[in-house]
Amino acid sequence: MKKKIDSILKEVLAKVEPPKEELKIIENSLKEFLGKFEKKLKALKINAEIFVGGSFAKNTVIKKDYYDIDIFIRFDKKYKDDEISKLTNKILKGFVNVSVIHGSRDYFRIKISPSFSIEIIPVIKVKNPRESKNITDLSYSHVNYIKRKLTKKMLEDIRIAKAFCYANHCYGAESYINGFSGYALELLVYYYGSFLKFIKAISKMEDKIIIDIEKQYKNKQEILMDLNSSKLKSPIILIDPTYKQRNALAALSEETLEKFRKACKKFLKNPSIKSFEIKKTDLEKIKQNAKKRKYEFILLEAKTDRQEGDIAGTKLLKFYNHLNDEISKFFGIKNKGFNYNGGKSARYFFVVEMKKEILAKGPSVKDKKNIRMFKKKHRHTFEKSGRIYAKEKIKFDIKKFVDSWKIKNKRRIREMGVKGLKVVGD
C-alpha cells in the first residue's frame, strides 16, 4: 500500500508543479511591474517598501489555469490606516487594467495577461503582531516563518495538500467555502511532518483539535481562556505561530471539515490519482437518476449585483441556504448542490420529492376571530398544544413553487442582494 501511495503522490507532484516556462514568464512580468512601481513610489516620496507574498514567495504555488500574485506594499506606521489604500491608488495612476477590490481595506488587481494578474495589497509595517490592524499586516511574518521552517520535501507535500484540498472543494478561507487557507495548510503539513501524516490524523479525529506549534501557551485550557470566543468555533484551532491571539483556521466549518475527512478516508482506504482530480458535477446523470426514481429535478441560476469574489459568493450561498429552507417546507430534498465560480452568479440544483401533505400552523385557540378565518381557508382542522392546525395537500410541482415563491418574495430576494433567479434549461 505504501509503495502505491508513494507512486501516486509522485505522479501528483509532477502534475501540480507549474511549468518552468510559465514561472519564467510570470517572473519577468513581475520584475518589470515592480521596477515601474518602485520608481513611482520614489517619485511620490512615499515611505513604503514592497515584498512579494503568497505561495509564489513561499515556493508552494501549484499549477493553475490562472494565477494571482500577491504584492504587499508595507507603509510606514506614520501613515493612517484609512489612507494607505488611497496612497496605493495614487501610485497606480497610469498603470493599465487596474480594478479596485473593496474590503476592510481596498486593494487592487492588475490583469497582466490571460493567465495571471497581480494583486497589490496595502499593509502597515509592524514589528510586533499586536500592532497589526488587519490580518494582511501579518503576511510578511507568515512568509518569513514558512520560508524559515520548511524543508524541500515539506514544500512538495504542501503542493500535494493544496491539490488534494482544491480537488475536494475544501481550499480557501472565503465565507462561501469555509475551508483551509494556503497558510493554514502550510502550517498543518509542517506540524504533522508530511501530507500523509496530516490526512491520517484528520481521518481519525473525533473531537476538536487544538494545535500550538510554537508552544506559545502553557496548555490547551489557557488557549481556550485567552482566545476570543469567535475564534474558538472552528473544529480545529490552529494557533498562528507569528501571533498567538489568532486562530489560523477560524474560517473552517464543520461541514467543510467533514467533507475533507471523507476524502481523506476514501484516499487512505483506496488510494487513487482521482482523489486529486477536480470532480465536476454530472448534472445530466443526476437528472436521469432523479427521473428513474420519480423525483423532480430543477437547475436554477441566481445573480447578484455585489462585488465578485468573497462578497458575491457569500451572498449567493446565503440565498441558496435560504431557498433550501423554503423548498424543504413543501418538498423532501433528496440531493442538492451549490456552484460558484468567482463571478456574479451561482447555480443551484435540487432533486426533490413532493410531500403528500404539509401541516399549516394556525392561530391560538383563544384567538376566536382568526380561528374563523383559518377554518374558512382550511376544511379540516384540529387542535394541538393550544393551537389550531390543518393538513394541506400539495398541488404544485417544484417549478411552479419556485415561480410562485419568487413573486411573493420579491422584496426579500432584493434585500438578500440577489437581483435575479431563473430556471436553467427551461
Instruction: Specify the oligomeric state.
Output: single chain
Measure the end-to-end span.
48 Å
The largest sheet, given as strand count, sense and whether it forms a barrel, is: 5 strands, mixed
Portion in helices = 40-55%
- As a percent range, the share of strand residues is 15-25%
The total number of structural domains is 3
For CATH, the homologous superfamily of the largest domain is named as Beta Polymerase, domain 2
Distinct helical segment count: 15
Q: What coarse outline follows from CA principal-axis ratios? A: globular
Query: What order do the helices and strands follow?
Result: HHEHEHEEEHHHHEHEEHHEHEEEHEEHHE
Per the CATH scheme, the topology name of the largest domain is Beta Polymerase, domain 2
Strand order of the largest sheet: 1-2-5-4-3
Any idea of the CATH class of the largest domain? Alpha Beta
Alpha carbon gyration radius = 26 Å
Regions with pLDDT < 50 over 5+ consecutive residues?
none
DSSP strand tally: 15
Question: What structural class should be given to the helix and strand makeup?
Answer: alpha+beta
